[in-house]
Request: fold
Amino acid sequence: MRWDHLAEYPAAARNAALFDADTVTTRTFDTPEFHGITFHEVRARSIVNRVPGASRMPFEWTVNPYRGCTHACVYCFARKTHSYLDLDTGLGFDSQIVVKVNAPELLRAHLGSRRWHGEHIAMGTNVDCYQRAEGRYRLMPGIISALRDHANPFSILTKGTLILRDLDLLKQASEVTDVGISVSVGFTDQELWRTVEPGTPAPQRRLDVVSALGEHGIGCGVLMAPVIPFLGDDPAQLRATVRAIAAAGATSVTPLVLHLRPGAREWFMAWLEHRHPYLVRRYERLYADGAYAPKWYQRRITRQVHELAQEYGIGPTRPGMPRRLPEPGPPSPEPALGTGPTQLSLL
Reply:
């Protein structure tokens, strides 16, 4: 395994390593929830990462206490990053987890530096900071505490229910700085969830997180991602998902169509060949021009979700204001293609 000359992004690997080989401790745990998973504990040299200028990300700085993810989402765009370690981007990404055990102390030192000017820090944008490993390593309480103590704005995107463990810290942080929380729920279809996101909590459990945060005065949006072509984009599926998101009290919903970057593309297409071989040619055509679905398709999904969100009343509400949701009716016909707002790619 290659540890030296490792950087968060490959272009930087020639210039700066994040940690050295002699700082790595490899562990396995004899417990059912960690069966078959290997943890590589490292002492990182840095923890606040600058997003490359060419990125589509709407933020400039990130913190990622883990690399690799036991959520095992077959479409995860971060799979490619495991190849920088000479690790497999398929099963290796799901089971070889790098843990930056000194992340909280590094972050606190960074936030206290005179060179730092309090910019927004995004978390959960590469791999989930509330994946199962966080239950054992407990890095996020120290990270949130450091951000709170320096009144530094931050956001968290997660599929994990473990975020509720840190509810008190999030409330404290929100009293002194801007805190944004989003939960990722691309669909509510149970069969689809079990096959494409096998290591995640069920969609309804994630929506329960949205409700719990709202009950404690922390507004939570939903990133409806990914909308998976031909498997999760049926109008009835979109309606069911948006209605469930509205019922959970989400402050907003942002749809994001599946994108397939190198590393993720190969793994996803192998999965598709195994599970839905009749869709392989359709995907090859839809993604013929690169990692992203055509803009006409993205616009169609965005328009449908926005119309459903308006119908179900998703949006900011006053504390304690009840939601009145219409009874579910027959699926609406798919709207005709046309121009509409272009979807913003967050991930």
About this structure: DSSP finds eleven helices and eleven strands in the chain. Confidence is low (pLDDT under 50) at residues 1-17, 317-327, 334-347.
